[in-house]
## 1
Amino acid sequence: MSKQTPQTAKLTVPQLVAKKEAGEKITIVTAYDFTMAKLFDEAGIDSIMIGDSLGVVVQGRDNTLGVTLDHMIYHCHCVAMGAKRAHLIGDMPFMSYQASKEDAVRSCGQVLKRGKVDAVKMEGGEEIAEIVNAVVQLGIPVMGHVGLTPQHIKQMGGYKVQGRGEKAAKKILSDAKAIAQAGAYAIVLEGIPTELGKKISESIEIPTIGIGSGPHCDGQVLVCYDLLGMFTEFKPKFVKHFANLGVAVHAAIKDYIREVKSGSFPDEAHSYKDA
Ligand code: KIV
């Protein structure tokens, strides 16, 4: 498909992967519900990720560790109802896949089947390569995720840039290679220096999807509330607000309160007549 042809059918895994070879950047945004998913899908996004970031931006937790498989399946299904064309990736929550290949296969199968997504995402490097391979062998496409992996928050001691220095960079490069070797079709690189993002992108055949990893990755992903300027609790350096919807929502709600209190809403135009 040429860069100019609008995609109207569902974007498949091979089509997404082919974008790297074609030199076309892959666009991904997170969503957690029907309305946002429909808007993003209609705007032409390549892929929507139902991230376990929902634990923070939807559920109000401090981190993603408390998100359950049922939460993920519920939100994946909501998004699948709204997105007809975008490739859908369901994030695997903490401890739904790490303990054994059996756990991973069952959990990923549930997210794919009941969540109606096209692929799943798992955080981790060499230590989960065999698990990734077991899931891929059964026909479930897996996106990897290395670098700053939020499910390792307790170990990392905070959301800190990873892979600084030669030894740490080497480890993340070999993690990415192990996950690609295990059969993942793409991999998220989160919170690593630009040069390392470039090196990994040049070293593996599958597309790299950057978030806080510089401009050389094969695609980018952002959390939708960050992108839209709605989540303002904290703003990492890599986040760009492409809109200021937080301010717009605030103003709209203030107008609504004022009009209801003053009696100017609902007016005749927004009320039913008898016949
Ligand atoms: O949970 C999430 O939303 C993610 C992406 C931001 C990569 O993992």
## 2
Amino acid sequence: MKPIRAILLSMCVLTGAALAQDKPVQVNIDASKAGAKIDRHIFGQFAEHLGRGIYEGVWVGPDSPIPNTRGIRNDVVAALKDLKVPNVRWPGGCFADEYHWRNGIGPRDQRPATLNPNWGGVIEPNAFGTHEYMDFLAQIGAEAYLSINVGSGTPAEAADWLEYMTTPQPTALAKQRAANGHPEPFKVPILGIGNENWGCGGSMTPDFYVSQLKIYARYARNYNPAQQMRRIAVGPDTADTSYTEAVMAAWKNKTWAWDIEGISLHFYTVVKFPPTFKATGFGETEYATLLKETRRMEDLLRTHTAIMDKHDPAKKVLLAVDEWGAWLAPTPGSPEGFLEQQNSQRDALIAALNFNTFTRHADRVRIANIAQMVNVLQAMIFTNKEKMLLTPTYHVFKMYVPFQDAVSVPISVDAGNYTHGDISLPRVDAIAARDARGALWVALTNLDPTKTAKVDLGVAGAKATRARGETLTAPRVDSVNTFEAPRTVAPKAFTAKASGGKLVLELAPASVTVVTLE
Ligand code: AHR
């Protein structure tokens, strides 16, 4: 039997549009002003060798009956192309600090079978290695964000990998690359120096990591003059500031011999580990709790950027939130360690709130990567053999494409609060930006799961008589897409007209709406 709370919530959500509305939300944008550029790299993806993320999710092999191009599934590539994925972080995650790149090059039938102790202890066939990753990036039009092994590797191994990939000169490693099918150097525009070295990457103290960082940042060189490479140091775990302090202090006193261009932050919407929040069949308390937890991102960015500002007031070093997203209880019956979870309308809101937060910190947050791309954690895509399914989170990524490299526009939101028990959150969260063609875009999230939000949108510095775009709503906050019902949560066309000098928008309960102003 359904818990009474869930029944009540579903009744509320189903009839939300008909319920009484609070006073209109006042949103104002000033189109004559410009804020920071919203770097397209904040819409990055993360694909680790974990569960069915790579194997089955991306790689099926050239002999698979599933349509593929050189082993990479065509349906997943087509779906990702529509997201204009800027970068894919790979091969991990915790996996990166146990990955030895030489196992993943050369003829595939000669590659060794190794183990993946972090994630289910399964066999790692090494069929998807450097060349397959680069081919996948080329197929979807994304850039590399490669994490090197600091935890269990050596500086020499990392240096060799960079030389193998990037040198245009005829060195032995470059010749090996050519013999393996790629005479031209690969591009590695973003390099992660380790992963969570405070945890699965070797439990290093901040000072010990900084010593390693200096070595790796020096020797893991980019030899491809056709591109710049940004090096990202490991940074904080959630609220712990010790790595932020240590890395930034070291950077401030850096010598000619090493440098970095960024520092990473990992923060999951999880509340506590091990994750217990259900992916489906949850009530309003769980919904509100996870939205509140997501909003912690704002505080974390403020905390860590304050430390960064102290050491780097010119904001040269970027903050890469290179693991974020909802980490929920695993799908019952899924293999241990595969981190499989369903993806609901609530998760779509979690994605939108994170994008809005990154945008508000766009002067510092210039890279971000959702965990993870396919079949793992807050995924864009699920696969089941030859079938593929797009999640609510996928739709939010697609709706936000116009914000890639757009320039943020100042916005004020006077929304009042959505309150549930002792949780109180701003009822509506919104961002605005101007794209390269000059078009204005506004993204609005109505957090309230029971009430429609009527928004009066005022636009200064531009004439706007109509808003047109898409809205993502769902019958319930825990609605999901399934292989049987793949469009339960899918965007619908949305329009709004001007009245009394303002645009009037009606945002459905628990919805994400993206419009362009005309
Ligand atoms: O995304 C799953 C794991 O979470 C990553 O491997 C690790 O970096 C983090 O703890």
